[in-house]
Design goal:
about 60% helix; single chain; two-stranded antiparallel ribbon; about 140 residues; mainly alpha
Amino acid sequence: MGTILKGMSLVRWHELTHAYGSAQDVPGRLSRVAWGDARTSAEALSDLALWLGELAVFDATVAAVPFLWDLAVTDRVTSRPSVIELLQAVLDHGNPPRIDVQHAAHQAVLSGRTTVNTLTTDGDPAVRAAARDLDESFRCVQWS
């Protein structure tokens, strides 16, 4: 797969926003998900869920989705099912005042269609289940 989270430093996170303001802390949380132990990873993912997808989607969400896909397919990541669930939350939530951001966030998740198909056959049953749920959502999403 290559280097996990490659290119993350090229994103101008300090110019992006999430649910609570500046997205400058997003890279640190993504790194903790990637390389942390189970507890550290879960805590960081909880923050990311609140910031990027549980309430609404934001421009930082759009930038983070490719890195979430990286995490979802990296075996050493301890919270892969929760990463997939966060991708599901992004697909489920919007941002009515910023429909352009909502559309971009949804498209970023939908771009992982082939990845989710691969994850439905993963060796981890929890990953398979989360991927199947996300795959089902893909079938329900339509953009005109």
